[in-house]
Amino acid sequence: MRKFLAVVKREYIQRVRTKFFIVATVLGPLFLAGFTILPAVMFGIRSGGPTRLAILDESGKMYERVAKELTSGKKPSDEDAAQTLEQTSSGNNNAKEKIDQANKLSRTSYLVEDVPLKGRSVADSRTDLEKRIQTHELDGYIVLPANLLKDGQAEFRLRNAADVFTVSSVAAAISRAVRGERLAEARIDEKLVDEASEPIKLRTTGAGGQESKGEASFYLAFGAGLLIYMSVLLYGQFVLGAVIEEKETRIAEILFSSMRAFPLMMGKLIGVSLVALTQLGIWGLAFLIFSVWAAVGSSIPLPQIPAMLFVYFVIYFLMGYFVYATVYAVVGSMVTTTQEGGQMALPVVLMLVAGFLLSRNIIRSPNSSLAFWTSMFPFFAPITMLMRIVTETPPLWQILLSLGIGVATIIGLVWVASRIYRVGMLMYGKKATIPEVWRWVRQS
Amino acid sequence: MEDTKPTLILDHVSKSFGDFVAVSDLSLQVRAGRVFGLIGPNGAGKTTTIRMIVNITAPDSGRVELFGQTMRTAMQDRIGYLPEERGLYKKMKIGEQLRFFAELKDLRGAEAEKRIDIWLKKLDLFSWKEKRTKELSKGMQQKVQFITAVIHDPDLVILDEPFSGLDPVNVELISDTILEQKAAGKTIILSTHQMEIAEKLCDDVCMINRSHKVLDGKLREIRRSFSRNAVALQFQGEDGLLNDPTLVASIRQHGDDTEVLLVPGASPQELLRRLVEANVAVTKFELVEPRLHDIFIEKVREVA
């Protein structure tokens, strides 16, 4: 037991005090935040100022609406709609060279300019506009045909046609403008249509009549699966490396002359896993503090999740993590390099993905025999059993049974790993084939 | 030597891996306070034998008895083992590693700390205690590995090729340390291919070839039994005396020495008398004890 603890201690301390661990622990959440927040911010901010667009309006009545849609950059509010109606009724105001200021709303990033035909042909105007695009006076132009409201095809010329964000936002703006104009022509109040399209509010209750554990709980179950998946991918390599380490450094024989293989393997697994849990714990705590702080600051209510569910979350996360981590230990005992090991472990990790795919069926019928058996299978249970607990909590004996099977699987796999490890070492550290491994496990 | 009970007894021990027979019906006894040489060519079964002694693997048949008891895991703490396949944790400091290996032998705390310092000083490594393995030369690493085998003051020390990679000064240092351990009443099993060192250090020798024991006993007796009636000579002036086929079987030049192998039955005294009579100026006349090296090669060839 003391030797087992010595192994745990060594594995833990050696890893936790590395610069890599400290840097990863600090930077991890920052990167995560970066990856979620940055893209949103980056799509929001366009570099190089607003996109300058000219509109060539052959219909002679669409410019105002399209310009408004573009510069407001959102679904027109009731007020806007009313205003637009008013403006349309007051007739077109083409003579005025009007440039909408893009910064009326923080999100808008278009500078729109009307190009009156003034009796010139469309082709002539186009040539002018093309020239202005060449000289970087303009970024693009829109041609609205006279029959746009019926079946006409609008045309959008953009210097950088690959800019899908601009293309789609322009397309949406024209669509909204056309819809508004069509409604106005049909004498239908646009405001009424918007109100009628408002989505309903739904309150869900469970079988007992009490408010359902709801979405937040569902996401908790899903989150557990995701967390297992991520931590297995992150730390599985650590376990693999720890098991292979003594093969590469040729220390294995010294260790085996001092202790049995099982406590050695178990010590490695626990030691490395404690590193993983330390890191996850720090991240989890940081996240918790952040969300409480954010909730207090913004008065958004924290999701209501029963405390017991958190307990199940932690238990099944641990079980899931260890089941998959031991797979890495088994693989590590068979191979000689981490690269090989990563490839060999991948198919097993994909089982976790299968667990995700099953969750759809489980949520729909949490008491089916499929749900029962998949929640007993240790490689699926962390996800499927949690799903069942969230949707329609199964009897306690089923939960305990699935946990029992999980623990037995973990111990069994560690035993197999230690066996392969020891025999593999006796075979002068050569790489093992699957049939050989099977023989080693049975004999010696 | 029969008065003390042997530290280690292998009793008709066999071990196979699949179809491959690694050790076949091996019996031997190792006594306390002696250096026991386990020699043999590569792949003879030495390492497997040692692994059975340190309880890494169990024999298929036969019995390993240590300190008068059948081998158990708990007895591993009384053995110090320096395997041929050995290494250190690359990123750990030397002091930490020794602490870890000591803990694996159930030695910890202040006592462990004290012995780590004593050994590091003894092997001129003390200033390296806080350095990481990768900063050490290969020879230094070898010495650190040696310490891991003796740090817990084991009663049985098993050293597999302890001198590989060491310069002559360090070979001397480790040799002296081994002899100190012997003087302290420890039992030492030494496996090596360096026959000159084995010759110097070993009291008893067991030679294994192709999984079988081919030789076993006190080194001195083994050498005597292999005596080939040879004489090493240095002399000036000779008149064909050495070509007498009734006396000399063969002549071989060995450095400055002329090694004369006498015909069976002829005595070295007879050769000396004839040389003196012939007025040859003899500057060296020495009965040649066969070297372990030669015995080794002879035995290996015999089987092949």
List keywords for this structure.
heterodimer, A: 444 residues, mainly alpha, 2 domains, 4-stranded mixed sheet, elongated, B: 304 residues, alpha/beta, Rossmann fold, Alpha-Beta Plaits, 6-stranded mixed sheet, 4-stranded antiparallel sheet, 9 helices, 14 strands
Report the order of strands and helices of chain A: HHEHHEHEEHHHHHHHHHHH
**Global morphology of chain A:** elongated
Beta strand % of chain B = 25-35%
Radius of gyration of chain A: 32 Å
Please identify, by name, the CATH architecture of the largest domain in chain B: 3-Layer(aba) Sandwich
Fourth CATH level, the homologous superfamily of the largest domain in chain B: P-loop containing nucleotide triphosphate hydrolases
Helix-strand category of chain B: alpha/beta
Could you report the average pLDDT of chain A, rounded to the nearest whole number? 78
Q: Give the tally of β-strands of chain A.
A: 4
The poorly predicted ranges of chain B are: none
Strand order of the largest sheet of chain A: 2-1-3-4
Q: In the residues of chain A, how many domains can be counted?
A: 2
Q: Main sheet of chain A, how many strands, which sense, barrel?
A: 4 strands, mixed
Low-confidence stretches of chain A: 74-108
Characterize the structure shown:
The complex is a heterodimer of chains A (444) and B (304). Chain A is mainly alpha-helical and 444 residues long. Chain A is 67% helix and 5% strand. In chain A, helix 8 packs parallel to helix 11. The longest helix of chain A is centred in the middle third of the chain and has 38 residues. Chain B has 304 residues and is an alpha/beta fold. The radius of gyration of chain B is 23 Å and the shape is globular. Chains A and B meet through helix 1 and helix 9 of A and helix 2 of B.
